[in-house]
Amino acid sequence: MERRTFMRATLVGTGAAAFTGTLWQRAALAAPAQNAPSPYGALQAADANGIQLPPGFTSQVVARSGQTVTGTSYTWHSAPDGGACFADGTGWIYVSNAEVSASSGGGASMIRFNSSGAVTGASRILSGTDRNCAGGKTPWNTWLSCEETDTGRVWETYPFGGTAVARPAMGRFNHEAAAADPVRRVIYLTEDKSDGCFYRFVPTTWGDLSSGTLQVLRAGTATSGTFTWANVPDPDGSPTATRNQVSGVKRFNGGEGCHYAGDTVWFTTKGDNRVWQVNLAAGTYELAYDDSLVSPGSPPLTGVDNITGASSGDLYVAEDGGNMEICMITPDDKISVFLRITGQSSSEIAGPAFNPAGNRLYFSSQRGTSGSSSNGITYCVTGPFRT
After folding, report:
1. Fewer CB under 10 Å: which end of the chain, C or N?
2. What is the pTM of this model?
3. Counting beta carbons within 10 angstroms of the beta carbon of residue 104, is it exposed (0 to 12), middle (13 to 18) or buried (19 or more)?
4. What integer pLDDT is reported at residue 26 of this predicted model?
5. Which residues make Cβ contacts (< 8 Å) with residue 317, sequence separation at least 6?
């Protein structure tokens, strides 16, 4: 399949899209991604935190569920899930969801760091919600926290201060992740159902999610082709679920993470261990990764879940189960293991997000060493990431 040259970029700053990626020419026959040695080198022995990393990288524990965040009086939430980083002028903020019921502390929290990466504060930014799984960052520096229930809502939260607000116009369904596209001025949304759909929300006014149009992707049954968008008649999803209101929709098996950069949106499906690539300018979609099509050897990435990207164009995909790894897919469609958490086989990795400088990667082990949501661990890995 002929590939196009494009720029991958990340959303940074306080309301503008900063295109900081590097131009890459996708290999003509490389997609879906194939096995290759890591550009960082082989994993080393597990460190004191039980994490195997490439040479030159180090890990630290940032927070533990049920324990006070070091340097603050705030107790970290259970089952840390989706996350994102926000620049705050001098340092940054890391936001993390809590994938538990409202009665068990569902919602989202934040940790603030100074320019050297030391914790300076932590607090709750959303409470009383259910199974806040993943979500997404907006260009105007809010966090969209998504409820993973059949009547789940998107909550717009304010890491810099403010009261969280439900955004029902974005649809009520089994929400998973969100990704903002500042070019088309839309928000992409995944649905965690075995017969789920891929959506976009078109706000009436960009920067205001209180009203707009929910649309669903329509396409054939193949793993590549062209697509169109169709309006969802009833975003409330009752009595007919949003995924069943429009004919000709494309079904995706368990939508998970979502990431936008440079006229492309990637999203993952855990039911079939795939990473999908939607080429927005061309109006086409295809597979960026499929564990059944990897060679040579065994597929490194299974339990496909949250996804994020670096300014280099590298994609980082976390595993829900698998070998408890974060794998990376390079712009030339090569896949390798970036890190592995040992001794936590009953957990999942969630919430990968880079700080604004791109030299720290935050993520969580949702259930830690015990396999219980009350024992989640949030980490930071520092090192010479590619830029």
Report:
1. N
2. 0.92
3. middle
4. 37
5. 257, 268, 275, 289, 301, 304, 305, 306, 307, 326, 327, 328, 329
What is the CATH number assigned to the segment(s) 5-382? 2.120.10.30
Q: What CA–CA distance (Å, rounded) separates 262 from 268?
A: 18
Domain boundaries, given as residue ranges, for the chain: 5-382
Over range 343-371, report the average pLDDT. Answer: 97
Rounded distance, CA 135 to CA 179, Å? 8
> Taking the chain, what is the end-to-end CA distance rounded to the nearest angstrom?
27
Chain centroid, CA 14 distance in Å: 20
Work out the percent of the chain whose per-residue pLDDT is above 90: 91
Copy the structure tokens of residue 166.
Answer: 């439900």
- For residue 137, the model assigns a pLDDT of 98
Sole residue written with tokens 């590939």: 3
Measured CA to CA in angstroms, residue 281 lies from 5, 261, 288 at distances of 12, 12, 17
Sort residue 230 into left (φ over 0), alpha (ψ -120 to 50) or beta.
beta
Alpha-carbon distance of 219 to 130, in angstroms, equals 31
Which pair of structure tokens corresponds to residue 62?
A: 């940032």
